[in-house]
Amino acid sequence: MALRIHKYGGTSVDGPDRLRSVARRLSADVGAGHRVLVVVSAAGHTTDQLVTMAREFCSKPPRRELDMLVTAGERITMALLAMALHELGIPAISFTGSQSGIITDTLHQDARIRTIRPFRILHELNRGRVVIVAGFQGVSEAKEITTLGRGGSDTTAVALAIIFGAPWCGIYTDVPGILTADPRFLPHGRPLKRISHDAAAVLSHLGAGVLSHRAAALARKFGIPLKVARSDAEDEGTWVLPNHMKEPPQGTESVELTMREVDPMESAKILSIALARPVWKLTIEQTIDAILSPAVPLEDLGRPLILHEEGTATGHSRHLIFEGDPPAGLPEGMAARGALALLSLVGEGTMVDPAVVDKARDALAHHQCRILGVYAQGLALSFLINKDESDAAIKVMHKTFIESV
């Protein structure tokens, strides 16, 4: 008996007809004798609508309360799908992320999965029920409801496939697979038959929306094949395979339904410490109108490595980090600070993990290296420091994150 893990995105569960279509597809797997575990997203634009609603009451909603609010979207979908399956005579039960045992760190709105303890899922699968899990959510080590950020349902599905040792995981969406071009800009792109984990991870990191970057990174880390396909058709779709695997899994692989311990599941592994490049910081104090239509030409200063904006009661301030040294003269309204350096940690996984940031802060503070700014961009976590402290900071970071591992 094989375990089938399905994930359905928001467009695939948007409305009664599409939910019933998903239910019929799941019932076919049940009829073939498979155990079925399903991860669902909130329907359509539900999450965006809930965030908009929150901002009608509060200009800057607390991140904890946003998590409490937006997780309602997935709960609605999972309960309705369970009812649709019951109507077809298929026993089913729905679980929230916390009921599923998905344990995360404490970062609201962008939490990382530490481990999963899916005892209730295992019990219900062994009873012959279809188990429906709300994607995108979990419970933190501090017993708070958390969400996993955009694309979090993909991450949930892949994480459960890892824990149960599933032969593969199906990601079902509104496109026929991973295409040769973004269909929003080039409608004639064709689906790829297969792609490597490495290539999928790069594509998703660079903005391809069909598969979340964190899900692609998890699949690559643990060697889980993925099938990306349309939810309303039997198209072959795209297989995302480990680099060593040339062909997708065949047949109805029978696996013993057990759990394996993976702790921590998502973590930030620092691979290297970039040199502390000399930089300078430009600060512009302007009103909102001036920001939207800047009168100051910045192109002569070069391309900024980092742009950071801060809002105030009277307007905005922009902070731009440029490589090299500041120019001799600047227009009125600009302030420059030189003799700075940008030290970057480059790694796999999340570079906004509070544990990584805190560890770096503590190490630098212990050696009297002052941090003037912290910036996370893609796979890099950068610290703005004084240039004369850069040599010591490199040694401290290397000892903390590389030599101690």
Automatic annotation (TrEMBL):
The enzyme's E.C. designation: 2.7.2.4
Matching PROSITE patterns: ASPARTOKINASE
Residue intervals of the Aspartate/glutamate/uridylate kinase domain: 4-229
Catalytic activity: L-aspartate + ATP = 4-phospho-L-aspartate + ADP
Keywords: Amino-acid biosynthesis, ATP-binding, Kinase, Lysine biosynthesis, Nucleotide-binding, Transferase
Coiled-coil region: none
An annotated GO BP: lysine biosynthetic process via diaminopimelate
Pathway: Amino-acid biosynthesis; L-lysine biosynthesis via DAP pathway; (S)-tetrahydrodipicolinate from L-aspartate: step 1/4; Amino-acid biosynthesis; L-threonine biosynthesis; L-threonine from L-aspartate: step 1/5; Amino-acid biosynthesis; L-methionine biosynthesis via de novo pathway; L-homoserine from L-aspartate: step 1/3
Record-listed substrate binding positions: T47, E74
GO terms, molecular function: aspartate kinase activity; ATP binding
Positions of ATP binding: K7, Y8, G9, G10, T173, D174, R184
Keyword Ribosomal protein: no
EC class (word): transferase
GO CC annotations, alphabetized: cytosol
NCBIfam families referenced in this protein's UniProt entry, alphabetically: asp_kinases
Family indicated by similarity: Belongs to the aspartokinase family.
UniProt name for this protein: Aspartokinase
